[in-house]
Amino acid sequence: MTKEDSKLMQGVAILIMIFFHQFGSYSGSDTLRHLALANNPVPLYTLLSGYGFYKVHMRGHDRHYATRCLRLYLVMWITLTVFITAESIFCDYPKLTALQLFMNYTGVQSYIYIPAWFVLPYCLLALAYPVLMRWAARRPWYEWLGISYAIYLIMTQLTHLMLFQQNYFQEFYLLFSYMLGAAMAKYDVVEKFRERLDNKTVLLWLLLAGIITIRYFVSTGAVIAFYYAAITILVTTMHKNAVIKKALTELGTMCVWMWMIHGWINTFFMFETDMPFKPLIEFILVTAVSWILARIFSFATRPLFKFFK
Question: Which of 105, 187, 203, 262 sits a CA distance of 20 to 30 A from 230?
Fold first, then answer.
């Protein structure tokens, strides 16, 4: 899987994330709500990260992995500051204590902006990448995948019991999809499937439709990382229209900003009146406005981010 493939899949992931947050509590359609809840996109992000970090590890030590975490935090800090300020001015946003701000700006808590819960555990995984990828490179796959999967299942059960729900424990929840991405990189899984499925467009679409349908009816978290591994293989293997490919790549380029923006604006596009294709219109509007704002934020902060390449 190339960097271009990874960027395109990040574009797919942000579309799934917007769909997940837009319709996860949607009352207008049980089908849409169930489909959204069955497609939590976080394992897809960590799978792609694990894939990329393994490739980086095999090329030599990455001196910039800590800087990447700082860049992610900068995006969160900027968007939190802008939207908290805007809502305080225009929407009578409740006053926050210094402790509340500290806990949310560090990512220890994320009740101000719930989608940001992912930042701290992801960065903890990223900072541990030299150790984790060395483990993956030197030991057999069944050892590190088996252990990380067992940890994932244990964390899932503990979360259901309302235990260890704090953000700083969630890297254990994300670990398996991260290591599965590393396994896909180590054993060239995408490339091997691409050799077998290349130019079989109808079969690829049938497999994709079939996997999504199965996921709709089998929505357990126990298989979601495998589900996204299959989605990644199929989507990256497909021959895509140039316009679609360019659009997904652009969304992938802006995905972090869009991730930190869309949750602030999606309620503005939940229309109470009935209209044809209402869910589709809402989804397109949230995606489009999130992308426009992401581009504005990215352009305005470009001088700042030049210091953190």
Answer: 262
